[in-house]
Each structure stands twice: as structure tokens, then as C-alpha cells.
Sequence to fold (231 residues):
Amino acid sequence: DIVMTQSPDSLPVSLGERATINCKSSQSVLYRSNNKNYLAWYQQKPGQPPKQLIYWASTRESGVPDRFSGSGSGTDFTLTISSLRAEDVAVYYCQQYYSTPTFGQGTKLEIK
Amino acid sequence: EVQLVQSGAEVKKPGESLKISCKASGYRFTSYWIAWVRQMPGKGLEWMGVIYPGDSDTRHSPSFQGQVTISADKSISTAYLQWTNLKASDTAMYYCARHLATGFPFDYWGQGTLVTVSS
Fold:
């Protein structure tokens, strides 16, 4: 299985500031024949199921605010929230779907 | 509107059996895969397995193979996750989630079913 490792585990950020979450895969999730990275980001708020934010590493799901962006390729990926709002407090997970799906351990985003 | 509605919370004793459900609506049930994902208390997400209701093709994570059974009834657009011998370590929230095919992300999730196994 591909192992997904996120950093940091916990991230305190002030309101209005930028939040950056990193995700590293144990092997490349870039499928060369279509040049797509099989990487998604999910947001899970307390007491709720996960919600898809980003897929193909950088495509925002419909309705997701544009302050959320995804970048990276191959084995290294980043989720960026450009200006943190209170409603963004959640745990964020990366997931690879290149092979049997696996998730990162999660990053807890909180207000500083 | 796509919806995955899961059955309610369960409290069981070790050794008991259980079947939880995930009812789909708002799309063609037989055209999408349904995955099951475990979240133990305070922990992350673990993929358990998946079923394609169109032909009942089923794959399990090696970690869960032999521990659970995944099935679906396409006549009522419902997927199931079943245990025959629950353990305390099965205590967790279980989510179903939809994806278009292997190699696609999970675009819709059920609300979750909390399973508590305690003597």
C-alpha cells in the first residue's frame, strides 16, 4: 500500500492568515499516461463526515471557496488556505486513489 | 440531489452479529462504486473495501478481509457492511462513500453509523 504522511499533525493559525498543510506519498501518484496526480483532500469538521475539497491534486470541488487550493505533483503535495476563517477549523486529510485508497493521518487545523 | 443515508447507531455485545446499511438516492446506484471507511475514536480514516453494485464486484482491504462482508441490493439501492463476530475493537464510526470508478476520489459520503461493541 502507498503510505501517506501529512505534516504537521496540528496547525494553529491566526484568523486571516495563511494555512499550509503538506502531504507526502511513499511512491508517486502521478499517472504518466494522463498526467494526473491521483490525490484528493478532504475536510472533516467535528461530528460530520469528510467532505471532498480538492481532487486531481489541484481541482477544487464545486462550491468550495477559492481560498482553498491544492498543489504539488508526484510524491509531494500541499493544501493551502489563503486566509483562514473560523469555519475552516477542521481536520484535513489527503488521500491517494492511484491504487488501493489510503489516507494521511490527518492535520488538525485550529485557531491561534 | 445525491444522498447516502446510513442506518442508525448500534450498541452490541462482543460475539454478536450486525449489518449496517447505506441507502443511495439521486443517482444511478449501479453506475458508481460504494466504499466503506472506518474511523476509530479520535483516529483517522481507513479504507475497508468497496463494491460495484452493477455486478457485485467486491474488493476488501487485506486488513479487513475475512472480518467483514460487503454486499449490495441494487433493487433497493442499498449497500451493506456486515459482521458475524463483533469485537470491542470494532467500535468505530463507519462511513459509506461513493466514487465513480477505481482511480476516482470519494465525492459523496454518508453521515456515518456509530457502532459500539461493549460487554
Summary: The interface with chain B takes residues 31, 38, 40, 42, 49-52, 55, 61, 93, 95, 97-98, 100-106 of chain A (CB under 8 Å). The longest strand of chain A covers residues 19-25. Residues 17 and 48 of chain A are 25 Å apart (CA to CA). The radius of gyration of chain A is 13 Å.
